[in-house]
Amino acid sequence: MKIKxxxxxxxxxxxxxxxxxxxxxxxxxxxxxxxxxxxxxxxxDVYLNYESGTITDExxxxxxxxxxxxxxDDKTIDSxxxxxxxxxxxxxxxxxxxxxxxxxxxxxxxxxxxxxNHSNQKIATQNLAESLVSLFDxxxxxxxxxxxxxxxxxxxxxxKQLKCLPQEILFIDDLELNTKAAEELGIQTILLTDKNxxxxxxxxxxxxx
Length: 209
Prior knowledge:
By secondary structure, this protein is α/β, with parallel strands linked by helices. The chain has two domains: about 5-15 and about 85-205, 3-Layer(aba) Sandwich (Rossmann fold), CATH 3.40.50.1000; about 20-80, Orthogonal Bundle (DNA polymerase, domain 1). Helices cover about 50% and strands about 15% of the residues. It is built from eleven helices and seven strands. The strands form two sheets. The chain has a five-stranded parallel β-sheet, with helices on both faces. The chain has a two-stranded antiparallel sheet with strand order 2-3. Strand 4 (about 105-110), helix 7 (about 115-125) and strand 5 form a beta-alpha-beta unit. The protein starts with a strand and ends with a helix.
């Protein structure tokens, strides 16, 4: 079936990410080894709640302070949390620009307010776009939607808001868990395992749809 809408993930697709960078930052704050912090999964529930929109920015910062047992200011917390966000993939942004106006483009991301604001600023700093928002016709952000990938609910919300058949959507993500969940509902997908192949893979899919 012909593809009418293209939906992109953010981290791992449009933007490089490295969670170790955040654990390194936490290590500097606490004095604990980053491996201990990472492997303990101490912060996992905080992250999941924050990305699902069930806690506020301030709730998130306070929870991090409590879990890490530190007394640091908001800027320090935000800087450590944003450390995992690296550079945007310039090839992916060029692809978005080339598709804009030809297809409605959407972003579907497990994200949060602090990360999303930082991403908007980061893409401008890299001189790739005025903002991340400016590249899309609409945004599907987990913290605003109240659910995360790979839940069926988040994909159903996308289908409902786009008012189309699932088969008319192309979704690009770097995690198989997320693409499989989308495929189960009939959405066409690309599992991106090599960021340098994004243009080739997307254009091939569009040419054969």
